[in-house]
Amino acid sequence: MHKTIFDTPIVNTLLRGLSIAVMRLAGWKVEGHLPADCAKSVFIAAPHTSNWDLPNTLMVAFVLRLNIYWMGKHQIFKFPFRHIMMWLGGIPVHRETSNNLVAASADAIQAADGPLQLIVPPEGTRNKARYWKTGFYYIALGAKVPIVLAYMDYERKVTGLGPVFYPTGDIEADMVKIKAFYAPFKGKNPDQFHAD
Fold first, then answer.
1. CA-wise closest residue to 105 among 116, 97, 114, 115
2. pLDDT tens digits for 67-125?
3. Is 87 exposed, middle or buried (0-12, 13-18, 19+ CB in 10 A)?
4. Tag placement on the chain: N or C end, fewer CB within 10 Å?
5. Whether residue 190 has a cis bond before it, omega within 30° of 0
6. What is the rounded CA–CA span in Å between residue 179 and residue 181?
7. Is 28 helix (H, G, I), strand (E, B) or coil?
8. CA 165, CA 55: separation in Å to the nearest integer?
9. Where are the alpha helices (DSSP H) in the chain?
10. Given this model, what pLDDT does residue 98 score?
11. How far apart are alpha carbons 153 and 142 in whole angstroms?
12. Whole-model pTM?
């Protein structure tokens, strides 16, 4: 994987301090921690209903000392923003082309030399989405890594890392459990998020 802001020592330290201050001033509480056996993992990013989710997620990553990568639609990686988005951990996704993103992502996680947390929003969009995409599940299954249930509840201003979930291969049963965890959370635009 490419180098990011999260493995840039001095900048990372400065931005961690700034992120802690900004989250506190804004009234947000950051909860949880990344267990040692989850250094390589897939994060669910939900609810994902606003452009504000990205800067907030980056600040949470600094606060919790994570090494995140995140998937975003390729349009936000166009000139002149491509390099900064990549440095922030972005991975451009071309939704309209048929490529094997799941297998490539799983391979990248397995091949990584150090910690790597791949963030995948299950809705696949900030817009209203009735059904969740299952790419995050199959990436974790293929890479043989756990899924960390990360959340951002705008109503209570609480964010962080929830339980660790180990996919069993029974996606229907597993998705019921995962969605049950997310049901109480409210995104910035709550009517656009469904965990049913």
1. 116
2. 999 887 788 888 999 999 999 999 888 766 545 888 888 998 998 888 999 998 886 54
3. middle
4. C
5. no
6. 5
7. coil
8. 25
9. 9-25, 53-63, 82-87, 101-111, 135-143, 171-182
10. 42
11. 29
12. 0.88
The pair phi, psi for residue 133, each rounded to 5°, is -80, 155
How would you class 52 by CB atoms within 10 Å of its CB: exposed for 0-12, middle for 13-18, buried for 19 or more? Answer: middle
Which two tokens mark 165? 């979930």
Tens digits of per-residue pLDDT, 150-195?
999 999 999 999 999 999 999 999 999 999 999 999 988 867 655 5
Question: Six-digit token pair at 17?
Answer: 């301090």
Give the Cβ contact number of residue 129 at 10 Å.
18
Give me the phi and psi of 105, to 5 degrees please.
Answer: -65, -45
Every domain of the chain and the residues it spans: 5-190
Q: Dihedral sign for Cα 160, 163, 164, 166, please.
A: negative
